[in-house]
Amino acid sequence: MAPQTPRLTTTFALILSLLFLASTTCYAHNITRILAKHPAFSTFSHYLTVTHLAAEINRRQTITVLALDNAAMSSLLAKNLSVYTLRNVLSLHVLVDYFGAKKLHQITNGTTLTATMFQATGAAAGASGYVNITDLKAGKVAFGSEDNNGKLDAVYVKSVEEIPYNISILQISQALNSAEAEAPTAAPTLNLTAIMSKQGCKAFSDLLIASGAKSTFEENLDGGLTVFCPTDTVINGFIPKYKNLTNAQKVSLLLYHGIPVYQSLQMLKSNNGITNTLATDGANKYDFTVQSDGEDVTLETKVITAKITGTVKDEEPLIIYKIDKVLLPKELFKPAPAAAPKAAKAAATADGPKADAPTDDSEDQTVADDENGSISKMEGERFIMVLLSMCLGVILF
Ligand SMILES: *[C@@H]1O[C@H](CO)[C@@H](O)[C@H](O)[C@H]1NC(C)=O
Ligand SMILES: *[C@@H]1O[C@H](CO)[C@@H](O)[C@H](O)[C@H]1NC(C)=O
Ligand SMILES: *[C@@H]1O[C@H](CO)[C@@H](O)[C@H](O)[C@H]1NC(C)=O
Ligand SMILES: *[C@@H]1O[C@H](CO)[C@@H](O)[C@H](O)[C@H]1NC(C)=O
Ligand SMILES: *[C@@H]1O[C@H](CO)[C@@H](O)[C@H](O)[C@H]1NC(C)=O
Ligand SMILES: *[C@@H]1O[C@H](CO)[C@@H](O)[C@H](O)[C@H]1NC(C)=O
Ligand SMILES: *[C@@H]1O[C@H](CO)[C@@H](O)[C@H](O)[C@H]1NC(C)=O
Ligand SMILES: *[C@@H]1O[C@H](CO)[C@@H](O)[C@H](O)[C@H]1NC(C)=O
């Protein structure tokens, strides 16, 4: 075999991952990244993130965002709306159709009603949730919420960014007034344990309640929460080992199944890598690695690899996945041997609680090897440079 074969294989793998990354990194729009280039919209962008609308916008295609500059945002914020109400108001500013500056000035018959994300989420009643766009004389374009008694409050200012026909960001002069969108909204009542109990995650939910770990999960609900729930049969099979843990270890193990941010399946697929968990606490890393393999997403701890097998609930800011194994952190369980020759040696204790199984230095070394991944620092730099040139549409070899 030619000596350069492994290199070629690496290069080929590199190009494949490049193509994959390029497709997710360069083309999928990211409203936060786009607005970062426009400091006049920093407050607007900040609140799109706080209200979790940014993720919703990134997921959709063929949309128009009616952006408010910092001055218009401070008038809106002066109304002291709760974050849930603000979400409704801002979602009224996201049209589920594409309007570039050109189309805006060429509306058939000079006026149209268009649906918004507020309407699409079902939060709005009746005709509210629609925005009236009307071409006025002298090239002006006016906007008003349909439930605003025919008053068109805002006018088009300028085009901020247009990526036909994926996303268009147009500045309008002020926030659209809508009694419906501004009506006080209660925090969404997401009962974590009730949701899980009904969907094949009752055993896990019962452990959260019994151990007291439930409250930590609930405290993270507002800011975004991702839960990986081992299914009932998986938990039942794990109970003998679970019982062997101290109370503190039980809590850590359960918290290891949550991440304090909302991560859709698409986000997990495109953000492979090490992720912290609710159990992470300084030196106690309690992290695992997210990997995607085609359509599958796996979670790799140093001890086991679990696979996501389904979604129990996806209602931002909460998402709950089903997984096919209990995630065993290396902080509590002995890492599985990485290399085949070492398998026999460690087989007897692999999987068992770590307490009575002293760690062997040579195995730690094996783990460290894996940690560096298959792309070395040098290759990594080249990788980034090639990726950048692909984003610019130039490939120099
Ligand atoms: C629009 O989105 C689609 C699907 O993600 C993508 O294939 C296309 O390249 C995007 N268009 C532009 C101009 O970014
Ligand atoms: C969008 O861009 C922001 C800022 O660059 C980044 O923090 C965020 O992770 C990105 N979101 C996605 C889904 O890639
Ligand atoms: C909003 O809150 C601030 C401080 O809490 C208060 O001074 C102001 O009067 C409130 N405005 C409205 C419209 O309620
Ligand atoms: C434009 O107006 C004409 C005549 O009133 C009407 O027949 C047509 O349906 C209107 N088109 C749209 C898109 O509203
Ligand atoms: C939009 O609002 C204007 C002004 O109130 C009104 O004349 C027009 O009929 C409305 N357009 C539609 C499509 O409802
Ligand atoms: C959640 O649902 C459970 C029943 O499944 C109930 O006992 C509990 O009180 C509920 N919690 C909240 C905060 O409503
Ligand atoms: C529980 O711990 C004991 C003592 O350390 C050990 O003998 C036993 O095998 C463990 N049981 C399980 C299921 O890991
Ligand atoms: C992993 O990478 C670090 C920093 O690049 C390096 O210091 C270390 O020696 C590498 N470990 C292995 C096992 O290659």
Automatic annotation (TrEMBL):
InterPro entries, A to Z: FAS1_dom_sf, FAS1_domain, Plant_FLA
Regions of compositional bias (Low complexity) in chain numbering: 344-356
Region feature Disordered, mapped onto this chain: 344-373
Pfam assignment, any one: Fasciclin
Entry's localization field: Cell membrane
Start and end residues of each FAS1 domain: 28-176, 188-327
Membrane topology field: Lipid-anchor; GPI-anchor
Signal peptide: 1-28
Keywords: Cell membrane, Glycoprotein, GPI-anchor, Lipoprotein, Membrane, Proteoglycan, Repeat, Signal
GO CC annotation terms, alphabetical: plasma membrane; side of membrane
SMART domains reported in the protein's UniProt record: FAS1 (SM00554)
Family annotation (SUPFAM superfamilies): FAS1 domain
Highest taxon of source: Eukaryota
PROSITE patterns xref list: FAS1
Main subcellular location: membrane
Biological process (GO), any one: shoot system development
Biased composition (Acidic residues): 358-372
Family: Belongs to the fasciclin-like AGP family.
Purpose: May be a cell surface adhesion protein.
Record protein name field: FAS1 domain-containing protein
Organism: Hevea brasiliensis (Para rubber tree)
